[in-house]
Amino acid sequence: MEKEFNNAITVETTVNAPLATVWDFYTKPEHIINWNAASDDWHSPAAENNLQAGGKFSYRMEAKDGSMGFDFWGIYDRVVPHETIEYTMGDDRKARVSFTAGDSGTQVITTFEAEQTHSPEMQQAGWQAILDNFRKYVEAR
Predict the structure, then answer these.
(1) Which sequence spans correspond to the domains of the chain?
(2) d(Cα 20, Cα 1) in Å, to the nearest integer?
(3) What is the C-alpha to C-alpha distance for residues 133 and 138, in angstroms, rounded to an integer?
(4) Would you state the pLDDT for residue 5?
(5) What is the strand order of the sheet 84-89 is part of?
(6) Beta strand 84-89 with 69-80: parallel, antiparallel or unpaired?
(7) Which among 53, 51, 52, 71 is positioned nearest to 62, based on CA atoms?
(8) 115 φ, ψ to 5°?
(9) Position 1 confidence tier, pLDDT thresholds 50, 70, 90
(10) Domain boundaries 8-139, CATH class
(11) pLDDT > 90 in the chain, percent
(12) What confidence score (pLDDT) does residue 98 get?
């Protein structure tokens, strides 16, 4: 059942890889640290992921020059392997990631509630850049 989000933003990509591979690379910390950044001057030096309802995830995101950083974290509300991940971020915003196998690869769609600090356009661009980095990482393997 699809839940309605407040001030929803959606980003998506199609990854030229099988669904099982896309799922693993999206959810395993050893892969997350390699793609979870919106620009080349940022990185994720650490990631933890307890992928189950009630489980917590935490990704450390930092500028490579050490000038700033933060922990992006949340609690999983619902996990359907190879299909859907729903979670609540640390600031109580909701998000959903959907995975769908198709003829041209695996479609990944992320919908999330916008925060109030940055413009919706900036948030969409940042989340899209991270998803694009994910696609490039998977396709390079």
Answers:
(1) 8-139
(2) 23
(3) 9
(4) 80
(5) 8-15, 105-113, 94-102, 84-89, 69-80, 56-63, 42-49
(6) antiparallel
(7) 71
(8) -95, 170
(9) very low
(10) alpha beta
(11) 95
(12) 98
